[in-house]
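Session log. Operator J.P. requested a structure for one protein chain; no other inputs attached. Running the standard single-chain path with token output.
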Amino acid sequence: MRPLVLLLVVAAIARQASAHMELVLPPAVRSKSDPQTAEADKDYSMTSPLEADGSNFPAKKYATKAKLDALKPVATLVAGQEFSWNLGGTAVHNGGSCQVAISYDAMETMVVIASWVGGCPLSLPYKFKVPDLPGCDKCFFIWSWFNRTGNREMYQNAAVVSISGKAKQFVGPQIYRINTFGKGVCSSAEGIDIMFPAPGDQVFYANGMSASSPVTEIDCPDWDNKKTVTVTGPGNGPTATAPSGGATGTTGGSAGSKPAGTSTVSTGTKPSSTASGTAPAGTTASATATGTADTTTSATGGSKEADDGTLSGSGGGVVGTNGGAGSGPTSTSSSSSGGLTDLDSDKTPLLFGGGLALLLAVAAGVYCLVQRRDRRSGYRESSSDDDSERAYSHRRARRSRSPRRHSHRQLRHEKRRHDDTDSSSSESTD
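Structure written below.
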């Protein structure tokens, strides 16, 4: 029984040690990383995936209207400016594909604003340019992840954010959803990076994936992964930076009346490249740059500027669609990691192996202590049994000797009487 209990304890500790990933920047609803979340409401298993039967889709069912009303925004997205997001955890499952989305109606409609195809989340943190979105004082920022290796799972968290933007509406694909319709239903194959059939206008490629990679075609019941949705916002949203404890990336975009531009960047062997020239407003600016460093491409002409999206890390291409901020406000917000340390994917197996070795050492120590205690307990029981046996034998011996002592006394008494009788007889004869 004791070894079984020990194994259960070890399994529970191992489950915690092999935690997966969670959204920490901005911190998700019920995350331990959000200081405004009460201790009793914190989910310390936030890194676990969604249930395979979809019972807690979307976002573990934490992103509700009640939470939206009760919580303060933890970050502010500014249309036309750069935004950074980050994850916590160590089990990256050799990457995969991620999406970020926005919902204005408490998760009823979730529209994709950026996708990472392949290698996600191997190069944290990630950045993207906020498209021309409708503003909101409170809405949900959603992160989804489909892991490359391991069990066929879907991870999803949502955080309360505000958006500074003046667009009337935004049109884009609804979020991608698989692995949450029951075992063997609408499931992805292991060992591949998901190529979204509708990734949106801003897409980042890595791990050998590109815009020409074959689309991952999976039929899912009552969910169209190619569907386009339209969202509208309640207003222009705030013009200030994120409140304390928020998680916005450093931004430096400029506002104006420019139309959206599109840029394409690919990486190779040269450190960086910058191309400039003249182009009429509304055209597409493109350049090819090689290298493993960040690449930036821009084109200027007339009254128009087109800025590309930027992806940090080695390898992989970037395709970004960059809308200006319209006539919306310009603001700058600072990034804060909250003490988190980015993990190199090459070190993840080493860290996991070291943690597992430490776990086994602790388990072995606990097992030895249990065995030692059992031996001591057995020795005490054995000693007690021996003492009881000796006491019992001693009592039996005493009882067995008592009659003999009594018999000897009787013999001596009879002998004295006999001697007295003989003596009396002798005197009478005389």
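Operator note: Residues 348-429 form the longest helix (82 residues).
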